Each structure stands twice: as structure tokens, then as C-alpha cells.
Input
Amino acid sequence: MRIYLIGYMGSGKSTMGRGLAKNLGLSFVDMDQYIEKRNFKTIPQIFADSGEEGFRRLEQKALIELSDFENIIIATGGGAPCFFENMKLIKNTGKSIYLKATPRILAQRLVDSKVERPLIKGKNFEELTEFIHNTLALREEWYAQADFILEFDTDLTDEEVLVKFHKAFGLS
Ligand code: S3P
Output
């Protein structure tokens, strides 16, 4: 069993992944944290030292390594499925869930978030909403290939999410 959570920054992949892993008795890995540990640098440091291009190479390498892990839920970085052949690898090695939310919901969560994200640094709510709107339109092509799409235009309780998830994957 290997489950990939994919979706835009701020869509709740890590929070949801941790909860699901606990409920299903699986391990959990946050890909950004894995990249940071493997490279002894934070994500902002990697962007500062090697640019987005360098980060994408390390991200691809991390994904290849993680695609060997068993009984695991992997919260991928927001851009991970959208570069190289990464989405192909995700589809070939596990089940994927796209956590889908509107630009406004994502922008609000990102404004409230404490995590430093180089791609959106310094943007206010309006700028963020516009940026998300534009980049999400490009990324949707990859996200939409997920095996299962969970929409967050309404608030679901953890319990409701879990019921949806169990049904989608035929788990008891
Ligand atoms: C990125 C998302 C981030 C992180 C990096 C780039 C992106 O992960 O990988 O800052 O391109 O969307 P989260 O989705 O966990 O914020």
C-alpha cells in the first residue's frame, strides 16, 4: 500500500496525510521534510543556493527514493507531480489523491501559514489569489490525473474525509 497526496501548496496534504496514516496504521512521510533531511538544508536554502531548477532535481530524486517505501502515505510537494515524469512514477507506484481547493481557500490558508514558501514569499492575499489562479490552471493537468479527487470547497470533518477515502479505495 502506497498513497500519494498531491495538490497545491496549502491544500492540507501534510495534515491530512498524518491523520490518514494514523487511522489506517500506515507510516507517513512529508516529502519536503524528507528533502530537507537528505540534503541538510531547508527548502528556502535550496531555492536560494540552486534556484527552482536545482530544487526540482532534488525533489525528483526524493520521489524516486520514496516510491520504494512500503505501507506509506506520502505528502508530496505542491509542484512535485508537475515536473519531469513524476506523475507517471506516482501513478505507476501507488494510489494518488488530489486535495482540490479554490484559489481563495488556498490563499487564505497560505496567508495564515507559518511555513516559508519561496515561490510565494512576500505576496499579500490579493496577489496570492491571482498567482494561485494562474499557476493552478497550469498544474491542474497533472493534478487531475489522480486516482481520486477530494474537493474542499466545503468543510469536511476528518471522519467524513475518511469515509470518502475508504469508499474510494474499497477499504472496510
Ligand atoms: C512548492 C510547494 C512546496 C515546496 C516548495 C515548492 C510548489 O510544498 O515543495 O516550496 O512548487 O508548489 P508544499 O506543497 O508542501 O507547500
The first strand starts at residue 2 and ends at 6. Residues 43-66 form the longest helix (24 residues). The CA atoms of residues 31 and 76 lie 5 Å apart.
